[in-house]
Specification:
- The structure is a homodimer.
- Chain A is of the alpha+beta class.
- Chain A has one domain: PurM-like C-terminal domain (Phosphoribosyl-aminoimidazole Synthetase, Chain A, domain 2), CATH 3.90.650.10.
- Chain A is built from 9 helices and 14 strands.
- In chain A, the strands form 3 sheets. A 7-stranded mixed beta sheet of chain A has the order 9-11-8-12-10-13-14. Chain A has a 5-stranded mixed beta sheet with strand order 1-2-7-5-6, covered by helices on one side. Chain A has a two-stranded antiparallel sheet with strand order 3-4.
- In chain A, helix 3 links the parallel strand 5 and strand 6.
């Protein structure tokens, strides 16, 4: 369904002129040097361990602006509330948004609230849009890349990954999706896993100051499997992962086993994968590990031209292909 | 409810630094010279005479960017679809968005689609966010204003209206709200009234080229009554309207009588009220009437310090106060 919709939307609304247009289907768009991002949040339930729909809405948009090489400047928040939502729940969400904004150093400058009658909606939907400027370290970063190889693009695009690039993952995967699932009724499992939802602008800033980064992307919907397949497809490269290096919390691993989920497809909200020229990989990794959001960072794979899919060297030996997620394995997690 | 929510949102998310911040509660925000607007559309039904949720989403955001003195540059469209929405309806909405974008000369550069399970939503909600640049004629326009009086603001704000300003309305009121109501089941009335939903950027552009405009606002939710009360409150002026001059279509007038609605409170999506220094009022009116969207334009009132409310000189003689709409007289029209 998602891909069908994408096709229809692109068909009708695509073709516009921009530095990074709709048709690129990248994390955000760039027009006239302004980074623009819009995302709607429909997570269910709206409160979960480690976060809520409000912190998610702020992090998601802030992070996508960073991923393309922007610095978030301001947010616009659109609330659609169901009449049944309690004012105290709404206020709790607002408080959480504010504290996440403060962490990220952005402010909400405009917004809109619509109320729908009871039963028309599930409690609350938030649309979070944001604008950003070009990160002041982006030119330095691209300059470092160009010491080692050509790169036409002025932004950090999904299509920038090249053979030999090292892929660095900033921490454990699956935490967000599992924390949301654990808060749903009827799943009957308990976990101490908390959502990783966090703004990543300070982390990405540090990496650009070092330089050598060609692409960044956050493994949200569809998890690492979706992210890497998008890179592989848009950059025309294969990707080889090393399973042993991918950090996964024990609680997440066991929850995935119990629920029959592939952790590679479970969404995250405070993680990033960075594609770096090999000459700068260790240095970028080091910078990432300096920050709390990147404490568990690891080099998890590299781009290759040996094949054109995403493959993983498994712990038990042998390789398995990681296909793009067929559907949404965990719907409504963001 | 709306005002309660506003209070909570401002309380928690307000206080940010911007040229025109959230706290101004103006049509759009301005930060770093970039105009930013976000609005969600939940109109019911999604198709109505003269438009649909798609044309509405584009017009609403484009127009709000214009109202503050911006030129729309790009849009971000967030779709929340219910599983039950047919692809052909969705495609019809996309086609309508595209044609409205083409009329307005803007493109959609990014977006997002979320699907919610059947029953979680009523078919489709669209969030439309947009960015704009400062209109290139805005400085000229403000220069003309300053020939006649002081004006501190660099943008066209709700708080700019001053004693003696003439208020020009660009055309008939109530068309949009009545067209949406006529498409709802159970109201049992027929009308040929079509929604006025239209992008206003070319019209507002023409007015700024003449100059003398201090504020512009589109009478959407809560209609003319809401617009004028917002101006009165934020500008600390009274407003005196002349009922005889307010253009209303016969079909709208009779539908309002039948339904017990005050046409002053019914929403519009292709109209603007402009506050102009009196010396330039006739010239601005003339320019408005040159364009199809402003064909029926009229000077409908003026700002005064005689009193501090919105009052109307009625057709039968005497004055009546136009209070701010108590609730939403026609919910879900945008």
């Amino acid at each position: 369904m998602q891909s069908l919709i994408k096709q229809y939307v692109l068909n009708r609304l695509g073709g516009g002129v921009a530095d990074v247009p709709l048709d690129a289907l990248d994390d955000a768009a760039v027009i006239d040097g302004i980074v623009l991002k819009s995302d709607s949040y429909t997570v269910k339930p709206i409160f979960f361990p480690g976060g809520d729909i409000g912190s998610l809405a702020v992090c998601g948009t802030v992070n996508d602006i960073c991923m393309i090489g922007g610095t978030p400047v301001a947010l616009a928040e659109g609330f659609i509330l169901e009449e049944g939502l309690s004012i105290s729940d709404f206020d709790k969400i607002l408080v959480s948004m504010r504290s996440t904004c403060d962490k990220a150093g952005v402010s909400v400058v405009t917004g809109d609230t619509k109320v729908m009658e009871r039963g028309a909606l599930e409690k609350i939907v938030i649309n979070s849009s944001g604008i950003g400027r070009r990160n002041t370290s982006l030119d330095h970063n691209l300059g470092v890349v160009r010491k080692y190889r050509n790169l036409g693009s002025q932004w950090l695009l999904d299509s920038n990954v090249r053979k030999g690039d090292k892929l660095i993952l900033s921490g454990t995967i699956g935490d967000h999706g599992i924390s949301v699932l654990s808060a749903r009724k009827g799943y009957g499992f308990e976990t101490r896993v908390e959502s990783d939802a966090a703004p990543l602008n300070q982390l990405t800033n540090d990496l650009l100051q070092i330089g050598g980064v060609v692409a960044m992307k956050d493994p949200t919907r569809g998890g690492l499997a979706n992210l890497l397949n998008e890179w592989s497809e848009k950059s025309h490269v294969g990707i080889l992962l090393n399973e042993q290096e991918i950090p996964i919390k024990e609680g997440v691993r066991s929850a995935c086993e119990m629920l029959g989920l592939d952790v590679m497809e479970v969404g995250n909200e405070g993680k990033v994968v960075v594609s770096v020229v090999p000459e700068k990989a260790e240095e970028v990794l080091g910078a990432m590990q300096q920050r709390p959001e990147g404490r568990d960072a690891a080099i998890v794979g590299e781009a290759t031209l040996e094949f054109d899919v995403v493959a993983m060297e498994t712990v038990v030996g042998g390789r398995r292909i990681i296909p793009p997620p067929a559907g949404d394995p965990v719907p409504r997690i963001c």
